[in-house]
Amino acid sequence: MTVNQKITTFLMFSGQAEEAMNLYISIFEDGEVTNILHQQDGTVLHATFTLKGQQFMCIDSSVKHDFDFTPSISLYVDCESEEEIDRLFEKLSDEGMVLMPLGESPFSAKFGWLQDKFGVSWQLNFPKS
């Protein structure tokens, strides 16, 4: 799939980039790795992948740092069905942390916010029809 977007979400991990990318592409029906380059130690030097037609980039940082992901920035996903939002919420929250459980909200039929086991925050939305 060719994606022609001007702004791409870039995720920096500390050794779990490939594991995270493989989880994400396994739970989104049309997810795929489009490119991956490894460092000599096997960590990810640079990778691109797509989820729902959106391109993402990720790396494993070669520098140790004291910061990680924060919920102040999250990936917002509009789901096409209640089954999809339930499935994504279950898979992404496994070993993660639920920030807002799935439920109805003023702007959606079902909404939930979570932080996955890698620390990446996701807002999942099933819009009202």
TrEMBL record:
Transmembrane segments: none
Cited SUPFAM superfamilies: Glyoxalase/Bleomycin resistance protein/Dihydroxybiphenyl dioxygenase
Family annotation (InterPro entries): 3_dmu_93_MTrfase, Glyas_Bleomycin-R_OHBP_Dase, PhnB-like
Domain of life: Bacteria
Protein name stated in the entry: 3-demethylubiquinone-9 3-methyltransferase (Glyoxalase superfamily)
Pfam families in the record: 3-dmu-9_3-mt
Lineage: Bacteria, Bacillati, Bacillota, Bacilli, Bacillales
Domain PhnB-like: 5-124
